[in-house]
Design brief:
heterodimer; A: mainly alpha; MetI-like fold; globular; B: alpha/beta; Rossmann fold; three-stranded antiparallel β-sheet; 9 strands; 34% helix
Amino acid sequence: MGANLRRWLAPVLLLAAWELVGRFDLVASGALPALSEILVRLWVDRADYPAHVTATLFASGAGFVIGNLLAVLAGLFFVMSRTAERLFRGVNIAIFALPPIAIAPILTLTLEGMTPRIVLAALGVYFVTMQATVTGLSQYDTRAADIVRAYGGGRGAVLRLVQIRGAVPAILSGFRVAAPNAVLGAILAEFGGGGRFGLGAYLLGSLGRGEPDRLWGIGLVATVIAGLSYGVFALISRRMLGASISLSLNPAAPPGVLADRSSPVLSVGAILMPFAVWWVILWALNVPDMLGKTPWGVVDYLFLADSAPTAQSRLLAALAETLPITLVGMAAGLAFAFALAVAGRLTPAFTRAFLPVALVTQTMPLVALTPLLVLLLGRGTAVTLWITISVTFFPAYVMIAQGIAQVPRAALELPRAYGATGWREMRLVTLPASVPWLFAAVRLTAPRALLGVMIAEWLATGRGLGNLLNQSRGYLDFGMIWTVAAVSVILSVILYLAAQWTERAVLRRMGMVGRS
Amino acid sequence: MTAPAGIQLSGLTKTFHGRGKLVEALRDVTLTCPPGSFTALIGPSGCGKSTVLRASLGLEPLDAGTVEIGGQPPERATAGGITGVAFQDAGLLPWRTVARNIALPLEVLGRDTGPAAGRIRDLIALVGLKGYEDALPGELSGGMRQRVAIARALVSEPRVLFLDEPFGALDQILRRQMNIELQRIWAETGVTTLLVTHGIDEAVFLADRVAVMQAAPGRIIDIVEIDLPRPREPTLFSAPHFHDLCDRIAGVLHGR
């Protein structure tokens, strides 16, 4: 009973504080309304919601189904053919790293109606589920597989009888993590793509009206949808597997760290593949040249055309604004995550109170969060930094906390036997042992940091790459839209690869093998 | 059951690179198991006895040497359903019931499992798991899982049985019981059996002949004929002649 009470105490206190702060307009002269005010506004606006919610649910639902279907099939394919896996590695990393906001305008240019929303939702779920499928299929019981092979069963039989069923828990956990991503993707596309219905469109329409209670209401509804979608799959996997639940929003299991001896042909192929896919899609959709720029079209725009020098200088100026804050935001997010994880170990009570709040900010779609943060923090650098921290810290925290939790008890007992406690024990054993996880966190958060910065720039500060994208959309400067999209994807991939490269180098020096 | 088939291993050789140096896992391993015989393969850990068994089933590629099971190469023999196998670890599929785990080889071989239902029930009874037909492996103890693996090894009515320390994880008492049980099954079915073990008494109790292996390089250094009369009773474990044979094998193992 006492423990139960304590568990509820923190959230209740928090809600009460929120109510008080809102009632008396204590934050940014009313930018944070009281929960009751938001709920009242929700009731007033109730006639607006069904159409918007239905549109968002449809787009994210369709994207979820299509994206997951492709992801599971791709995962199967990659497990069956290592060559294919290596060849598509570039495409996979690009899909993982691509900032949805950068390609939302492109999708609305080249596709029609609901399709861009569905595509973006599908892109949001693809990597998570593909990775989960590959992991699930690869980590099968080799002894059971030996039995199948000992009766003359080939790879097909092993796959059918041992691997696929064994991968179901992993795939289900992939679905669970992917579900909020689908909602986020759909809302982003609605936001960036016009159209009348959808929570993103509703948000966009309400932005200029200075009604914080409505913005918060939309954010709340979006959060509930994303949170419910997570909850539904958490429930399904619990029902089906009877496994223990995990408080994990880990956006993706990191792709294999171990360097395998890759042939140069395959490596070049892996680098060229994303560009080939880009080309083929444009060709297959029969997009007019003016609208759809091929890789060559972007090179032409940026280096060969008459307007190239102007384009270059605008792009470089934008990069000079975006890049530093991305790195700073990423570092801050990681530092925050690290501090939180360490604090969680040293003072578990604090973390238990804080985590539910963190979880809510994670299921809250970024686009919905941003206008609210603008209301709270204004349109300066601070808002960019906060948004970047808020998108990076949670996945990083989950990773690092997992790393700290997996340190074997036996390793902890040695320093404890000599009287080391608290921080000293952490410094000697826990932190060094969780270094691989820390690096995995860096790798995961790098692309997210860029996404956060670009969203903040687009919606709030009017600077950098995000703003350049938004402007180009307004001017119908298709060359620049494609260029910004391509550059931001490439930048994300570079950040990811840089993190991965550092990870390998450090782990090798420390004599720790990377987790595969 | 059709006539048992024999096992013929000739000149099995396998080396692999381990951290810059060549490791000779097997050097010229030759062993003949006549149809219906019971052969035990014994040796220290790392001597390659499990590799011999895996190679016999075609699970391990060889640098040189040939395997013949009933005159066929291992790939043909296993896919033809001549062989049965149980490994040290049961390797059960956690989502299948006991009965469905036992039926797995039939599915791999592409046989109909329906008509085999009766035999699967008999096998479950044979290994003492009556009433556990629909239990999941997670609900069984380690010894029970191992017995499911034994039943699974017999479900395809094999003519050649490969056992890789199938009782290694069991306690001494259960191990003795299973040894007696295995002898009975072997006597009833006449299945040619190759048992990998590191228990000297187990090898002597069960086998017609014990092949002793040595490590680095993995090779057979001696083959000891076991001339004890059959059927062998549990009292044999305390007979002087039994101990003489055990001592002799221990002597070979320790290079005396």
